[in-house]
# Entry
Amino acid sequence: SDAWSTPDMVVQWIRICSRLGRENSAVEASDQMALALGPEPSPTTRRAIERADSAATAVTLILASPEFIAR
# Structure
């Protein structure tokens, strides 16, 4: 929807992703990546998630990824 493409809504989406990342950081990021993004996320997305400095950041990146948003 066009409503989600405004700058304020993008910031709100990142905040939601961050909160969910903190709440769900106990699950392995690779397992969450496979469940949320399917078997073949883009190399850029996969690399960013694998390089995340914490499980919470990895989950945040999964939820904010183009592949997740497209679903």
